[in-house]
Amino acid sequence: MNRTSFKLSTLATAVALVSVMASCQNKDNKTATDTAVKTDVAATAVKANEPIVYVNSDSLLTKYQYFKDLKTKLDAKSKAAQTDLAAKTQAFQREVAQYQQTQNTLPADQRATTEQRLARKQQELQAYQQNAGAALQNEQGAEQEKLYNKIADYLKVYAKGKGYKMVLTYQKGNSAILFADPSLDVTSEVITGLNDGYKADKK
């Protein structure tokens, strides 16, 4: 059921759109020099005066507890909506089948009345499906915006505190960044800060 199925790919897109510019006070404008690194070399700590850093959006979405809780909640709502619609659809189909079995024994006026009633029920069922799908999409959009704002607001404060001019996002196979020095990866630190803030908000 396309309209009621919930997809979280747009949430990943929201994270991928996070690119925060922050003022860099009392910092020299230095260009980070790209250096070749082997894939098995562990990322070193980011220096406080690096002007640009990046966050791995894949790791962010899989380790940010707020996102995991959000996914669980919306998945449950989507499943409930699908179950409800399936039950209504099956009930309607049973009613149609019952009418088909007895229609030849009914007077013409009763057949016409029954068919009109079933036609209305079918329209109501279709409208219910569309409304349920729209409601899920609206909630998805609202939650997507909340997720984006939470990450963006945190990164604004984080970047300002660290003196970074820009925080980029990196996603393997879906990123404008072809190479990024692991020393510029602040994903773990950002995830820790986001999760700490989420725990504090829940208390």
Protein topology:
Elements: H1 9-16, E1 20-21, E2 52-56, H2 57-63, H3 65-102, H4 108-162, E3 166-170, H5 187-202
Parallel strand pairs: 2-3
Antiparallel strand pairs: 1-3
Helix pairs in contact: 1-4, 2-5, 3-4
Provide a descriptive summary of the structure in words.
The chain is mostly helical and 203 residues long. It has one domain. It has five helices and three strands, in the order H-E-E-H-H-H-E-H. Strands 1-3-2 form a three-stranded mixed sheet. Residues 1-45 have low confidence and may be disordered.
**Helix percentage range:** 55-70%
Tally of structural domains: 1
Tell the overall outline: rod-shaped
Tell me the fraction of residues in β-strands, as a range.
Answer: 5-15%
What is the radius of gyration computed over CA atoms, rounded to a whole number of angstroms?
26 Å
Q: What is the count of DSSP helices, taking H or I runs of 4+ residues?
A: 5
- In round numbers, the mean pLDDT is 78
Low-confidence stretches: 1-45
Structural class: mainly alpha
Order of strands across the biggest sheet? 1-3-2
Q: How do the SSEs run, as a string of H and E?
A: HEEHHHEH
User: How would you characterize the largest beta sheet?
Assistant: 3 strands, mixed
Distance linking N and C termini:
37 Å
Number of strands: 3
